[in-house]
């Protein structure tokens, strides 16, 4: 069946926000006594699940929802420091030029995402967000209900194992990209429908769908 909608993750997939997230986390970790993210451990942390990351950093798992909210409130002030990952801005402009339906599905706050796209002068059709770190399956179901779309008519593009697992839970085809928050090893374990290593590969894949 033909893909009718592309759904993109925001942090890691479209934009490079890693250093902002690390900086915010470390400022909190210094106050709370959690382990810091450093150049020595960041590569290892990218191979871990959320649960394993929490254990490695000494962060109580029950604190994660509060930390996500804390991040979202402070992220807004850092929006102008964000940049698109290579090729992603051009890809979105191409989708807009061809009137290809797409949307953003993210755990970041809508205010933050909207501010970034306005700053970058990119008109995004729709943004769906959830403050729940593991709430993307609900966002996917909400999107499908609103658009009367079947799972196989959607293609999700994300950079974390939790993105892929959420899609698999809903029966939605998913592209895992290796340049985001999770390492390619973590992505491979979840067996996405597509594993993409470069923005050029992603652009080629998506153009193959919307040129059908």
Automatic annotation (TrEMBL):
InterPro entries per record: HAD-like_hydrolase_sf, HAD-like_sf, HAD_2, HAD_sf, PGP-like_dom2
Domain of life: Bacteria
UniProt cross-references to Gene3D superfamilies, sorted A to Z: HAD superfamily/HAD-like, Putative phosphatase, domain 2
Stretches that traverse the bilayer: none
Name under which the protein is recorded: Phosphoglycolate phosphatase
UniProt organism field: Flavobacterium suaedae
Originating gene: gph
